[in-house]
């Protein structure tokens, strides 16, 4: 057990160091190519930090562990918003751009809704995987034109000059490609160390694969996003932090899940527990971002604390389910009849106050 704990700590240190290297390299390439932090966060950063989810889901599908696949995807998407934005928002209030509000959050909500509809029958068939993969192609085409437009706009604003203080030579590209790859390798290694040690502990405790996927594995595979987003916020880059989360959620569904379903030997079963609880929560959490982000265009510390509180309550409920604790029914009643209605009222109140403040 001591070795397992040491492995967990070593993984955390490796993860943080890799995130710093990776983000530094991404910033350099974004400046060199005249691409905004939002677009870099939605593409390069989101794709790279989503690598652990892809690797673990593909391996779980091959090993015939559908609950781990589904739990990993759903748990990661819930953690990305509630946990990562919660932590990042506590470090520093997050500024939200118009593009995130008008384009990226609705896309995450649409992808989450699509997955919910396809999984309602308890199965994700190869046909379902093909539908999700076609959505990925459509999103990729959209992002291609967005990158071209973003680059043209930035070049026009900057008069054709980049923000780099070093020349764009072969040495520049070799140097930062190597640093980026080293950072990515460290991120993946750190995540694997932490997930492996956490799953080992959970296995000893006798926790189900779905619960492991929704909690330990999903948190572990979301750690690259945590490290990258917090590092971005510490450097005053809210755009990358928020875009990383939205892009990662999209890639988790459109890329990771579609490929996993397509290569899996047959359809992937989706448990009724996931259909009745975790899928709706994933959709609700994505939808809640719209009234919270707009019209104030900021995720402040109170909202970030609320995100973390809800994530803690969600984990607590999963634990109660896993151990079949008698308090589970009372917990459900408190959430349904007290906590959720109060939260809805607070969101509406914040929306109205922000709207009035913006109008004035």
TrEMBL record:
In terms of Gene3D superfamilies, this protein maps to: NCX, central ion-binding region
Q: Which InterPro entries match?
A: K/Na/Ca-exchanger, NaCa_Exmemb, NCX_ion-bd_dom_sf
Domain (Sodium/calcium exchanger membrane region) spans: 5-144, 176-319
Topology versus the membrane: Multi-pass membrane protein
Where in or outside the cell it occurs: the entry states:
Membrane
Pfam families referenced in this protein's UniProt entry, alphabetically:
Na_Ca_ex (PF01699)
Superkingdom is Bacteria
Provide the transmembrane region boundaries: 6-23, 30-49, 69-91, 103-124, 130-147, 168-189, 201-219, 250-268, 274-293, 305-323, 335-353
Q: Which UniProt keywords apply?
A: Membrane, Transmembrane, Transmembrane helix
Q: Where is this protein primarily located? A: membrane
**Name of the featured protein:** Calcium/sodium antiporter
